[in-house]
Design goal:
CATH architecture: 3-Layer(aba) Sandwich
Radius of gyration: 13 Å
Shape: globular
CATH topology: Rossmann fold
């Protein structure tokens, strides 16, 4: 378990949550990988410094925050969100 993965796991446990029920907004490949390794969902939002990185594996990749609203992100992360 990498350092960042451990940090995500500690946060989930401190909140009393199962990592599978947590989501991370990441702007780097390292944070994306760590959140996925911790068993969390991930919304990747590359910025001008990280847009060249590989964000594959993220549940949702948003190139521009204007592309998607919160409802759309939640529906993609949690298909039963609207139920």
């Amino acid at each position: 378990m990498g350092q960042n993965t451990l940090e995500f796991d500690v946060v989930a446990k401190s909140l009393g949550k199962n990592p599978f029920n947590c989501g991370v907004i990441a702007t780097s490949r390292a944070a994306t990988k760590s959140s996925l390794s911790a068993g969390m969902h991930c919304v990747a939002i590359p910025d001008s410094y990280t847009s060249h990185e590989d964000f594959s594996g993220a549940d949702v990749i948003i190139d521009d925050l204007a592309e998607m609203n919160v409802e759309e992100v939640m529906t993609r992360l949690c298909p039963h969100y609207q139920d």
